[in-house]
Design goal:
Phage_Mu_Gp48; DUF2313 domain-containing protein; 46% helix; 188 residues; alpha+beta
Amino acid sequence: MADFTITSPRGAELFSYLPAYYESSRVIQADMNAKGTEMDALYTALNETLDQFFVRTATWGLDRWEYELGIETDRTKPIEQRRSLVESKLRGAGKFSGRLVKNVAEAYDGGKVDVSFQPAEWGFTIKFVDTIGIPSNLEDLKSVIEEVKPAHLAVKYEFSYLLIRDIEGVMTLDQMENTPLSKFAGGA
């Protein structure tokens, strides 16, 4: 007679709590495996639901976050872009300041951002320090910045690009060929 194998992790845990005389019972092993499988599914569902309460782990609950914040849901965008839009909108509450703009911009870009003000010109500049080229979700960032900034202030964006002096002797020809043209100064 072949032994029954418990495949469910929680079923094996349940079985470990039973008295030793059940070790040879295929009926009890099958029972614990069935109950354990259901518990595994329950815990998976609970953990998945818990993930929806946090922007950085939300998947199917992201629609709700967007609805609550008045953001139009666009399922064609990558989920990371949608998450960064929600996170920046959450960070964008409060009194307008350089720190607020920095927090919002860094939520989008994921890299370091410098914000400088030009009071004589009634404006400020957002410079992407760590990001090479134009961030993929710049249009989303622009729309959120327009919402949080006072209407009388103009905003400029500065980007970092790869220059010849940055790549000469550092990158191989293969690396340069595999780098998108948009990362280079003058690239499309």
